[in-house]
């Protein structure tokens, strides 16, 4: 499981989060701020998990203030893919990380 606290400590965009191919990976977005953060994952779709029950497939999820959102995605598209907040000034400030794996 990957945890991505928002906007506290997180992986700088140049750091990759290594994962293995052909696995299901859970990302936990932890929003410790009072702002909304629409988080997007390039190259994949994911399922938002609600009490362990998967919901519709998406590639962007809104993380409300003081909330945690978990998403599951399959590592079936090898490469180096960025996940970032869609608020431009947050992305420019480094609210992003890479997920990377080989085929």
Automatic annotation (TrEMBL):
Signal peptide: none annotated. SUPFAM superfamilies: Cupredoxins (SSF49503). It holds the Pfam family Cu-oxidase_2. The keyword Metal-binding applies. Keywords: Copper, Metal-binding, Oxidoreductase. The keyword Oxidoreductase applies. GO terms for molecular function: copper ion binding; oxidoreductase activity. It comes from the Bacteria. Residues 12-97 form the Plastocyanin-like domain. Residues 1-21 are annotated as: Disordered. PANTHER family: FI03373P-RELATED, MULTI-COPPER OXIDASE. This is Multicopper oxidase.
């Amino acid at each position: 499981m990957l945890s991505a606290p928002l906007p506290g400590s997180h992986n700088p965009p140049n750091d990759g989060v290594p994962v293995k191919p052909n696995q299901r990976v859970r990302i936990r977005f932890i929003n410790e701020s009072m702002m909304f953060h629409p988080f997007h994952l390039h190259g994949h779709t994911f399922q938002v998990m609600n009490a362990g029950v998967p919901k519709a497939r998406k590639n962007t999820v809104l993380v409300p203030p003081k909330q945690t959102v978990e998403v599951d995605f399959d590592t079936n598209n090898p490469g180096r893919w960025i996940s970032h907040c869609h608020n431009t000034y947050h992305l420019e400030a480094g609210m992003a990380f890479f997920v990377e794996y080989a085929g």
